[in-house]
Amino acid sequence: MLTSSDKNNELFLGIDGGGSKCKAIIMNKDNEILGTGISGPGNPLHGFEQATNSITESAKLALEDAGLTHIELSELVAGVGLAGVNIPVLFDKMADWQHPFKTIYLATDLLIACLGAHDGGDGAVIISGTGSCGFACVEEKHSIVGAHGFPHGDKGSGAWFGLQGVKQVLLSLDGLVQPTLMSAVLLQKLNCNDDTDLVEAVASQKATFYAQQANLVFDAAEQGDQVALAIVAEGAEYINSIARTLTTKNPPRISMLGGLTPRLKSWLADNIKETLEEPIHAPEVGSVLFARQQQAKQSVQQSA
């Protein structure tokens, strides 16, 4: 029976915690993925307890998927990449968490996405999922573009596109902008009859809810809807701007990732699309790579 008490059998947990879900993988010393798990939101900005519960739950699901239910969480070396911990107070709070793992190495979701995309090497990433941002890691220097959170930031993200769609539908229903295909689709989707119903349906909703509305904007744009086309053009140009800023950092590779990438990538400028390379690994693998790098640094320091 496999246990991780033997250094040769050490098991790594990789976590990618975002605004919509928390992904976990179990990897062995040979970098083989043994199991995966997905649970709820993992961004501590939207709730510390929810984030820690999601991390723990996804780890248990990954162990179950790997057929390793006899392994305790306390036997896992965890690399944990989370949205939100680029904010120092949230990083400190997560770092103080009385976690159940053997060891935890905490990083931003941006860093682990970059490490995963470029197999642990230098590079840059553009992320467009529930939120949006750009990140470059070149010669151990980190640069962040955006990552300011929703609704005051995260332009070009799923949440931003969804919110813009809702705003334009409300304006259209009031007759203040031209009619849009999005109106009927959104009203039906949210079981609303008019603008008053729609306001009630969207009031106080969070980023995840708005991100779920993003596809209707792209669907309408692909049918030539002028209102939707304007939204997509504005969001795409913001992502173009992120890419241009990242190129000034001279990264050897740039990748785009996040749940909105399949819908958004084709709308980017041609010269931007030409620079993008496919990610080598998923962000959760980047978490394991980060944990391994930190372990190696500690080993060197201890032996010095």
Major sheet summary line:
5 strands, mixed
CATH class of the largest domain: Alpha Beta
Pattern of helices and strands: EEEHEHEHEEEHHHHHHEHHH
Beta-strand fraction estimate: 15-25%
Task: Give average pLDDT, whole number.
Answer: 93
The order of strands across the largest sheet is: 3-2-1-4-5
- How many angstroms separate the termini? 36 Å
Q: What structural class should be given to the helix and strand makeup?
A: alpha/beta
CATH topology name of the largest domain, in short, is Nucleotidyltransferase, domain 5
Radius of gyration: 21 Å
Architecture per CATH nomenclature, i.e. the level-2 architecture of the largest domain:
2-Layer Sandwich
Q: How many strand segments? A: 9
Name of the CATH superfamily of the largest domain: ATPase, nucleotide binding domain
The overall number of domains is 2
Number of helices: 12
Low-confidence stretches: 1-7
Q: What shape does the CA trace take?
A: globular
Portion of residues within helices: 40-55%
Write up this protein.
The chain is an alpha/beta fold and 304 residues long. The protein contains twelve helices and nine strands. The chain has helices at residues 48-65, 88-95, 109-117, 158-173, 182-189, 195-202, 207-211, 214-222, 226-247, 261-264, 270-273, 283-303, and strands spanning 11-17, 22-27, 33-39, 76-82, 103-108, 123-128, 132-138, 141-146, 254-257. A hairpin with a 3-residue loop joins β6 and β7 (132-138). It has two domains: 7-119 and 280-303, ATPase, nucleotide binding domain (Nucleotidyltransferase, domain 5, 2-Layer Sandwich), CATH 3.30.420; 158-273, ATPase, nucleotide binding domain (Nucleotidyltransferase, domain 5, 2-Layer Sandwich).
